[in-house]
């Protein structure tokens, strides 16, 4: 659940940032080749950064899920030990 929400958040942020950067591409007026190339490069860089952030978020979600599983197993083991002690 956490992983899915994190990925969705990153994808929404990526979409918003891409649309924001591309918003000025079709503007009327004098379009300069250098400006278009620079804007295209900025967009590509933003997409790359967003993809890296998505990868990091996914890895962090995986680590959190593993930690939660480990904590759950430890809690179950502690409960078993406690129940054994109480029966004595």
Descriptive tags:
rod-shaped; 88 residues
Helical percent range?
over 70%
Largest sheet: none
β-sheet strand percentage: under 5%
Can you give the mean pLDDT? 81
- Supply the number of helical segments: 2
The outline comes out as: rod-shaped
Low confidence ranges: none
Structural class: mainly alpha
Order of helices and strands: HH
Number of separate structural domains: 1
Rg for CA atoms: 24 Å
What separation lies between the terminal Cα atoms? 40 Å
Number of strands: 0
Could you characterize what this model shows?
This protein has 88 residues and is mainly α. Helix content is 86%, strand content 0%. The protein has one domain (2-20, 32-87). It has 2 helices and no strands. The radius of gyration is 24 Å and the shape is rod-shaped.
Write the layout of secondary structure elements.
Blueprint: H1 2-22, H2 33-87
Helix pairs in contact: 1-2
Question: What's this entry about, in short?
Answer:
The protein has 88 residues and is mostly helical. Helix content is 86%, strand content 0%. The protein has one domain (2-20, 32-87).
């Amino acid at each position: 659940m956490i992983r899915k929400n994190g990925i969705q958040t990153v994808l929404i942020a990526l979409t918003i940032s891409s649309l924001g950067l591309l918003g000025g591409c079709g503007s009327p007026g004098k379009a300069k080749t250098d400006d278009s190339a620079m804007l295209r490069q900025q967009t590509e860089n933003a997409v790359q950064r967003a993809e890296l952030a998505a990868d990091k978020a996914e890895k962090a979600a995986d680590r959190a899920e593993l930690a939660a599983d480990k904590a759950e197993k430890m809690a179950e083991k502690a409960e078993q030990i406690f129940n054994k002690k109480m029966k004595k």
